[in-house]
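Form P-L/3: holo structure prediction, ligand glutathione.
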Amino acid sequence: MKLIGGFGSPYVRRVAASLNFLGLDWDHEAVSVFENPDAVSKHNPVVRVPTVVLDDGEALFESFAILDALDDIAGDAKRLIPANGAARRSVMRLVATACGAMDKAVTAYYEGRFHPAEKVHEPWIEHNEGQIMGGLGYLDEFAAKAGQGWLGGGERIGQADISAVVALGFANRVRPKLEVLNKFPNLAELAARCEGMEEFSSVTP
Ligand SMILES: N[C@@H](CCC(=O)N[C@@H](CS)C(=O)NCC(=O)O)C(=O)O
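OUTPUT (holo model):
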């Protein structure tokens, strides 16, 4: 299968790291959706990354849907989100929190990236930054409880860890003034543990 999109996108990066942890074979097409939209639009009508193209040409898009399909393809012994029940709901809540923080970091970043300086609305950026801090703070509490373990409990890394670590790294990169590594030391410790793993370090922006 092929993963389209650069690792600068947190959604692409969480899919890439997940592919590695699931042990699936994949190729990478590091397309910038803004510089080369045609490479994406032929597979994804909304022209966003990540887009995954399976070997038979079937396209998957929207990272939640992609990761759901990848867990299914990899099989129950390897899945990164529990298949059902309270454990699934709990992990999904953490993943949704991490993705919410990513969404807000992207929104804050795009405000400056795509508007001329006189049209950048600082209060809107600050509103989004507050939501980033809320989401990461929530994840930090779980990281404190997890200690040397994993956010979703269990014996091995899961999707809650992957998405939280990616969210923290992305927020740190695009909103450095928030100093998220200092503000959320438990999450930062989890991130340091994970970013040292080949599955993450090989998919660094
Ligand atoms: N909810 C989507 C978000 C994907 C997304 O916003 N990707 C960005 C890159 S970070 C993108 O493709 N932006 C191009 C655009 O929206 O025009 C997901 O989880 O896959």
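COMMENT: The chain has a mean pLDDT of 97.
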